[in-house]
Amino acid sequence: MLIAGNWKMNGAATGAAEFDGMLAGASEAASRGVDLLVCPPFTMIGAFALKAAGSPLSVGAQDCHFAEKGAHTGDVSAPILAEAGASAVIVGHSERRTDHGEDDGLVAKKAVAAQQAKLKTIVCVGETEAERDAGDAVAVVARQLAGSLPASVNPQNLVIAYEPVWAIGTGRTPSTDDVATMHGAISQTLDTQFPGSAIPILYGGSVKPSNAAELLAVPHVGGALVGGASLKAEDFLAIARAAPGNG
Ligand code: PEP
């Protein structure tokens, strides 16, 4: 099971100490088969990766450009992330899709770049509240998956994160039945496209210590992508402890 933290644009001043706390708890989690990944802002990746070298705590990024290098002011490429010590990258987060107008086609190009740089690629999908209310959630996510996963993707290095947009940062979560329905549908789609590959499907959206156990126990939930509650070592490790381990 993978518990991934997305720090978004947070972590100034307190991030290093919180990361140290996560590092201290990573071995216990790993001993139960629970992998921890922290995705801080770009500037923290190098220092965190150095601290975590040789530990079971992985460091990733929240986005990458699709090009390997070039004239793209302010962007960071997948090879630069890998060189800084990142082993994973999130692509297609709903905040990127909304704030930066990223569409499925661009997300697919970023996924290709991430995979070429040998980064574990976490592709995010999820419906808006209006889409869910219209009864379209499963169809929307199926369309996002079809558009965001490049044909050339290596399933060994791929993770899907189902994050209903209306649950991100709101304190609201879908019912466990709704999570089960969506994760079952995603799993079926992935099994058809990549037979036998067992691609982990994370749930994301207002996961916290108090609801982690029930969300992580839902069939086909292979972990969590955690925003707000990943900023504090205590909360992040409590979520990891709530994960059903394999040991
Ligand atoms: C996220 O942004 O990926 C997320 C799930 O945020 P939160 O846990 O704060 O809802």
What does this structure look like?
This protein has an eight-stranded parallel beta barrel, surrounded by eight helices. It starts with a strand and ends in a 5-residue tail after the last helix. Helix 1 crosses helix 2, helix 5 packs across helix 7 and helix 7 packs parallel to helix 8. The chain has helices at 15-31, 42-52, 78-84, 94-99, 104-116, 129-133, 137-148, 176-193, 209-216, 233-242, and strands spanning 2-6, 35-39, 57-61, 88-91, 120-125, 158-162, 201-204, 223-226. It has ten helices and eight strands. Strand 7, helix 9 and strand 8 form a beta-alpha-beta unit. By secondary structure, the protein is of the alpha/beta class. It is 43% helix and 15% strand. The protein binds phosphoenolpyruvate. The site of phosphoenolpyruvate has 13 residues, from strand 8.
Topology:
Blueprint: E1 2-6, H1 15-31, E2 35-39, H2 42-52, E3 57-61, H3 78-84, E4 88-91, H4 94-99, H5 104-116, E5 120-125, H6 129-133, H7 137-148, E6 158-162, H8 176-193, E7 201-204, H9 209-216, E8 223-226, H10 233-242
Parallel strand pairs: 1-2, 1-8, 2-3, 3-4, 4-5, 5-6, 6-7, 7-8
Bound molecules: phosphoenolpyruvate.
